[in-house]
Amino acid sequence: MAGSNDRLGITRREFGVLAGGAGVAVGLAAGAPHLALAAGKANAADLIPGKVPEMIVHNAKLGVMETPLELLRQHRITPKEIMFNRLHFPIEGERSWTASLKPVERPEWTIRIDGLVTRVRTVTLADLEKMGTTEVETVVQCAGNGRGFFAAKAKCPGSQWHHGGMANVVFEGVPLRPLLDSLDLGASSQVRYLTVGGLDDPPTPKGADFEKSYHIDDPALDRAILAFKMNGEPIPACHGGAVRLVVPGYYGNMNVKYVTRLLLAAAPAPTVFQARAYRVPLHPVEPGEMKVSDFNLQNSVPTYGFRIKSVIFAPLASDKVAAGPVEIRGVAWNDGNAAVDLVEVSTDGGASWKAATIEKPKSPFAWYHWSLKTELPAGTHTLMARATDAWGRSQPLDGTAMWNPKGYEWNGVDRVTVTAS
Ligand SMILES: Nc1nc2c(c(=O)[nH]1)N[C@H]1C(S)=C(S)[C@@H](COP(=O)(O)O)O[C@H]1N2
Ligand SMILES: [Mo]
């Protein structure tokens, strides 16, 4: 893998950025935002102008923020102004361009395709714009979404996400596989992995790049696109413009932003974001049993496809609920490989369940909206929602059963306590 971690000096200089600025000696351990400020202290609109001030800021230095469900539920397609944001490197100084909702207007944006190939190629944004594109409505969700709920068993380090580290948006771009085929790369038969890297270099030369690897035969790559539009507009800088890899059905980290490099290699990237972070143990572990530094390619798997999940959008604990008829509603989704065909709702803490009505989404990777009309007598009620798909995959009643050292892939049955009066 020598050379896999080269920095792409050209594009980096194009942004007029300077390497190694002062005061950026940040410990880049495993993507966990150790510098997290107390949630809510910084104003999202100051960090990324245009984001609404109601966003819950988890890490001001990195511009990490989540969407309150009260806002998220108002839109079928999440507007950029309220979309959650996750970056791994400080947004000040040389990466201040990543803290913007404006598009990255650079037709000369260049992606280099190299590695075990006979012919190294480059493709620009202008090239992509001339090619046939496809659109996909898809959930984007951080693997850490819901991490805060694992604290009921043992707190996991990193941002204590509630449910708002997710969005449902429409990406448009060029399908990846046909593009790679058309480039006539002369790839070696040794190629097993595709590693994708972005322009947001770490603040110190020793720091690991954010790059992610995919098995070259992964069927998820059949639906992957190099996206340059989100919700009908050029992708905002903070969400990965000019070009972002979108793998529908895969956790957020697998949707690499600022794509400048596609590397065809025999092995996955050895760097921290692939080899140690964004992994879950192959076998259940108890708190304290395994450290992040113990993760390796044999004992763990990357956070690839979404675990099936449903989230109650209404009523929320913050809503006033009148006793009598009530509509309970929310969203469900999975990795898109089988339809979500059942959402059960309980209003009595799990003693009894009723099937909700499910709307079939436009794409298997988008939110399925579900709702159930029922009655709530005066008093306090625990509402629960549990999704199941056509393959029988469902959600654990106690989500902490899936506890893992980094607190990834939370998909426990959602619970909301409301008082009807
Ligand atoms: N280049 C790059 N791509 C990245 C990241 C990053 O820091 N750099 N963060 C990843 C993670 S962990 C998530 S959850 C999503 C967040 O996407 P969003 O900020 O557009 O919501 O981007 C992913 N892609
Ligand atoms: Mo993430």
The assigned CATH architecture of the largest domain is: Alpha-Beta Complex
Percentage of residues in strands: 25-35%
Q: What is the average per-residue confidence, as pLDDT, rounded to a whole number? A: 90
| Distinct compounds present | ligand MTE, molybdenum atom
Strand line-up in the sheet with most strands: 4-3-12-7-8
| CATH hierarchy, class of the largest domain | Alpha Beta
Return the CATH topology of the largest domain.
Sulfite Oxidase, Chain A, domain 2
Shape: globular
The count of helical stretches stands at 6
Task: Provide the fold topology.
Layout: H1 9-14, H2 44-47, E1 56-59, E2 64-66, H3 69-72, E3 110-115, E4 121-124, H4 125-130, E5 134-141, E6 166-175, H5 176-182, E7 193-198, E8 211-215, E9 225-230, E10 233-234, E11 244-246, E12 259-265, H6 272-275, E13 279-281, E14 300-302, E15 309-314, E16 324-333, E17 340-346, E18 354-355, E19 357-358, E20 368-376, E21 379-389, E22 414-420
Parallel strand pairs: 3-12
Antiparallel strand pairs: 1-2, 3-4, 5-6, 6-9, 7-8, 7-12, 9-10, 9-11, 13-14, 15-16, 16-20, 17-18, 17-21, 19-20, 21-22
This protein binds ligand MTE and molybdenum atom (MO).
Residues 86, 142-144, 252-253 line the site of molybdenum atom.
